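Why should sequence recovery work at all? Because a backbone constrains its sequence more than one might expect. Tight turns favour small or flexible residues, buried strands favour hydrophobic ones, and helices have their own preferences. The token representation captures these environments compactly. In the example below, the structure is given first.
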């Protein structure tokens, strides 16, 4: 059975009571000593006075013979009665009592308790004075003095007892009032013990309890924050996508989070307590010990790419990070906190990016070679076929204009030759402009675009086409120039073939460095029927793919948007800074 604890209030009251009792006992002891001394001095003084009186009376008396002497002395003693708490007895020569003082009438019939009398009464002394015919015996009687002392002691005791009760009541009440906040403190501690960490104590009027309240509230707040932080950390560890584990300095696994279970296939109960080398391939097992040695030296390991073995034997590429686990009380390294992230997909993505970059470089080379071949074909058509057609046209014109030409048939055939040659010439120049616009080589991007738009307007007068050029778009380099030109050329072709639009807007703008870096915006939009149907989109697919590949090959962004009935907008942002790399690459492969 559990013993009930004595309350602090009762203990303090008991201590105060004990102190009062001890003080009262000490005071009573002093009072008894003082009473004993006072009674003794009083009796001694009375004895001295009585003795002096009787000696004087006896010495000065002249009362004749012995019989008359004792009779006269008896008469004197009867008149005197008692002398200050002393009894007088007169004896004859035969020791026969002749006279005895009457009992004291002061507090007659009352006596102090024997134990008290024993404590304070002085030793009773008898004084004998011999007189003619007998003797006078003087005997001290302290009973009245003792009774007076007893009465005083009773009054003092009653007063002391009343004071004792009053003090106890006042102290008990004051303690109850003063210690009342303890109940609130205990209730707060009880709630804290039950896990209600949001418990707070009120402000108390007493400074001591106010200090306890403030300290308690700060402690509760700190504890609540610490536990909340620990819960968040535990939740982070449990929900982390990284495999987190803890090793001791011997390499034994002591913690294993759910992400580690998913990554390696081991449940926590089957892996905890085993060596971390079970996760390492044979050729990397020394790495575990090397990491532990580094952690002992309080070194950190950050995102080291390595490999580990799963439960099913799979080799998993991971990025490993490790940090020392330090005991906060002793500041001693007691283990290693290790996290591993599966980077298999990341490495595959890196490989894909490398392959994509290679494809882009190949696309740039192909585009560069294609433009070079177009340039050569256009040059050959211009230089060879164009001259031949010109010569045929000239000869036909000469024949048709000769005054001596015989026959209408000859003249008509010559005119036919001139017409066909003119048509072939126009077709060849159209093919040349499609293959390689000469204005792009001789006049620059702006004039080449204006010339191409002007020719397009002349061929399609029913569609309004507006060209806007903003910013410095010259000197961008041959690769960007031809890319911008081909995007505009392909977009205008799609407007004719698929959009059914009545208006097309072309915007070529040099973007600010603060917005997108040094780059060129190509935007072509129309007011046609929007993105085409699937079968038409398949027809456009190669053209769109070509524009996208050209843009992405230069590290740019390409997008096409268009809601039904709201037209189509093609946007391409080409960084100017990448052009140098493209040109260098082209030159390298051209060699």
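From this structural description, the recovered sequence reads:
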């Amino acid at each position: 059975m559990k013993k009930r604890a004595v309350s602090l209030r009762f203990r303090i009251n008991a201590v105060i009571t004990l102190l009062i009792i001890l003080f009262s006992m000490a005071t009573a002891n002093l009072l008894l000593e003082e009473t004993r001394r006072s009674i003794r001095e009083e009796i001694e003084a009375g004895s001295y006075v009585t003795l002096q009186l009787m000696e004087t009376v006896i010495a000065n008396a002249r009362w004749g013979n012995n019989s008359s002497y004792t009779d006269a002395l008896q008469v004197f003693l009867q008149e005197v009665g008692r002398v200050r708490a002393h009894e007088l007895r007169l004896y004859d020569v035969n020791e026969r009592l002749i006279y005895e003082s009457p009992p004291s009438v002061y507090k007659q019939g009352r006596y102090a308790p024997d134990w008290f009398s024993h404590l304070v009464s002085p030793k009773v002394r008898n004084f004998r004075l011999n007189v003619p015919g007998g003797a006078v015996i003087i005997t001290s009687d302290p009973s009245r003095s003792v009774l007076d002392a007893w009465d005083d002691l009773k009054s003092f005791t009653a007063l002391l007892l009343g004071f004792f009760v009053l003090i106890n009541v006042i102290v008990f009440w004051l303690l109850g009032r003063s210690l009342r906040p303890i109940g609130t403190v205990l209730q707060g501690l009880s709630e804290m013990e039950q896990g209600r960490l949001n418990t707070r104590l009120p402000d108390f009027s007493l400074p001591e309890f106010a200090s306890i309240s403030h300290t308690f509230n700060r402690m509760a707040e700190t504890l609540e924050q610490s536990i909340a932080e620990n819960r968040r950390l535990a939740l982070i560890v449990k929900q982390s996508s990284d495999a987190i584990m803890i090793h001791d300095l011997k390499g034994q696994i002591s913690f294993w989070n759910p992400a580690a279970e998913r990554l390696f296939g081991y449940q926590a109960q089957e892996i905890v307590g085993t060596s971390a080398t079970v996760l390492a391939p044979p050729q990397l097992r020394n790495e575990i010990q090397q990491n532990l040695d580094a952690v002992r030296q309080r070194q950190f390991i950050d995102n080291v790419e390595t490999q580990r073995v799963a439960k099913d034997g799979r080799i998993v590429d991971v990025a490993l990070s490790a940090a020392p686990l330090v005991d906060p009380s002793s500041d001693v390294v007691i283990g290693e906190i290790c996290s591993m992230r599966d980077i298999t997909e990341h490495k595959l993505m890196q490989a894909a990016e490398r392959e994509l970059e290679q494809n882009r470089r190949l696309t740039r080379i192909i585009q560069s070679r294609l433009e070079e071949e177009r340039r050569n074909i256009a040059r050959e058509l211009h230089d060879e076929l164009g001259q031949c057609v010109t010569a045929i046209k000239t000869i036909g014109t000469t024949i048709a204009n000769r005054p001596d030409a015989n026959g209408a048939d000859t003249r008509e055939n010559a005119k036919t030759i001139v017409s066909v040659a003119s048509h072939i010439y126009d077709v060849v120049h159209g093919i040349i402009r499609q293959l390689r616009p000469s204005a792009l080589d001789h006049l620059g991007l702006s004039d080449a675009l204006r010339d191409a738009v002007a020719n397009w307007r002349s061929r399609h007068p029913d569609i309004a086409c507006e060209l806007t050029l903003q910013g410095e778009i010259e000197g961008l380099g041959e690769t960007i120039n031809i890319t911008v030109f081909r995007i505009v050329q392909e977009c205008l072709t799609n407007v004719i073939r698929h959009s059914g639009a009545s208006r097309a807007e072309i915007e070529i703008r040099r973007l600010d460095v603060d917005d997108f870096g040094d780059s060129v915006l190509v935007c072509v939009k129309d007011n046609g029927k929007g993105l085409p149907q699937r079968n038409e989109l398949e027809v456009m697919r190669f053209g769109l793919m070509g524009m996208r590949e050209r843009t992405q090959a230069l590290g740019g962004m390409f997008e096409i948007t268009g809601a039904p009935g709201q037209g189509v907008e093609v946007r391409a942002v080409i960084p100017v800074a990448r052009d140098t790399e493209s040109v260098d690459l082209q030159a390298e492969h051209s060699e």
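A few observations help interpret the result. Residues 578-591 have pLDDT under 50 and may be disordered.
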